[in-house]
Design a protein that fits this description.
12 helices; 2 domains; BirA Bifunctional Protein, domain 2; alpha+beta; binds adenosine-5'-[phenylalaninyl-phosphate]
Length: 352
């Protein structure tokens, strides 16, 4: 191919590049005009390459320069056009995808605490505001702390009230948070104590509307000189009114625990039937939420206290039962099922 012919071919390819409207057309030009089998590659460049092979040495350099010039010319022309087209494409897509930053954002579902933990934290704040310390104890507990130091020796019939998961003869999943009382007193013998201990507890109870084999309790213990039943009663009344407001009926009913004397339980009017009697409260109109009493002198003595100088009160509250009565929840199992339809109802409560 003559040089003039090559230059005219080059000009026609550049023209085709110039008229390409978009990347698709440009790539078509590239494939047809600059591909391996194109006239430019297979004829024009090939004839120049053949020429260079046979040309005298003094002409080789000029020929080489010409080949490079032709190649670079078409290549840079193509690249320029490609850049222009890409910029145009980008501008067009930016315009098409314009974001209206004045539109309100989309709300996404934010997780929140399980109602059980909402009420647990509320109880903790109530007591810490009154100057109580917060303690914890092991969930896998020794028989000694779970029963013996609480005046419940081996074979005591009261052990049957807390049917238990034993790991071996002396180790069990704690049946209540009361062992934290013993652990705390033993750590600070003959010292005033004012503490609460929240945590998980376990019993071999059959699951039903108000019973679960695993549930949460909060223990409370106050020991000092001159602590009496009036202190316990007023603390419980304030606590119950904080959780339920002044309208719910609260009953103090005599009861029995080996580690307190006297002992009683606190019942709260059923959230479901408001005291009339229903399935949930087993027809009684009330649900038991906690056990309480004056710390038994045997417990004080076994835990390193002079029982003639010190006295104390204690109680253990079931957190699920409180939450059920507070929010009108009909089945204790709902707390553990992780059903978002149930949990979502406490979103507002969490934000308060
Ligand atoms: C006790 O566990 C005593 N340790 C409480 C106590 C502490 C008394 C300090 C005196 C001094 P009781 O077994 O009654 O007592 O349980 C206390 C509360 O735990 C009950 O009132 C109830 O609210 C809750 N509870 C008990 N068993 C279950 C269960 N299976 N499922 C859900 N809640 C339960």
């Amino acid at each position: 191919m003559e040089r003039a012919e090559i230059l005219s071919l080059l000009a026609s390819i550049k023209e085709k590049i110039d008229v390409a409207k978009d990347m698709k057309e440009l790539i078509e030009v590239k494939n047809s005009e600059l591909g391996k089998k194109s006239k430019f590659m297979s004829e024009a460049l090939e004839s120049l390459n053949q020429l260079i092979r046979t040309a005298p040495v003094e002409e080789k350099k000029a020929l080489g320069a010409f080949i490079n010039e032709v190649k670079n010319d078409v290549l840079s022309h193509y690249e320029n056009k490609e850049r222009v087209l890409r910029e145009e494409q980008e501008k067009a897509s930016l315009l098409a995808e314009q974001i209206d930053i004045s539109l309100p954002g989309e709300n996404f579902y934010k997780g929140h605490k399980n109602p059980l933990y909402l009420i647990r934290d509320e109880i903790i704040s109530f007591f810490t505001d009154l100057g109580y310390d917060v303690y914890s104890g092991p969930e896998i507990e020794n028989d000694h702390y779970n029963f013996e130091l609480l005046n419940t020796p081996k074979d005591h019939p009261a052990r049957d009230m807390q049917d238990s998961f034993y790991i071996d003869e002396r180790t069990l999943l704690r049946t209540h948070t009361s062992p934290v009382q013993a652990r705390t007193m033993l750590k600070h013998p003959n010292t005033p104590v004012k503490m609460i201990a929240p945590g998980k507890t376990f019993r071999r109870d059959d699951d039903d509307l108000t019973h679960s084999h695993q549930f949460m309790q909060i223990e409370c213990l106050v020991v000092d000189e001159g602590i009496n039943l009036a202190h316990l009663k007023s603390t419980l009344e304030k606590f119950m009114h904080k959780i339920f407001g002044p309208k719910r009926t609260i009953k103090f009913v005599p009861s029995y625990f080996p580690f307190t004397e006297p002992s009683f339980e606190v019942n709260v009017s059923c959230a479901h039937c408001h005291g009339k009697g229903c399935n949930m409260c087993k027809g009684t109109g009330f649900i038991e939420v906690l056990g309480a009493g004056m710390v038994h002198p045997n417990v004080l003595r076994m835990c390193g206290y002079d029982e003639h100088r010190f006295s104390g009160f204690a109680f253990g509250v079931g957190v699920e039962r409180l939450a059920m009565l507070r929010y009108g929840i009909d089945d204790i199992r709902r707390f553990y099922q992780n059903d978002v339809r149930f949990l979502k109802q406490f979103q507002e409560e969490y934000r308060k």
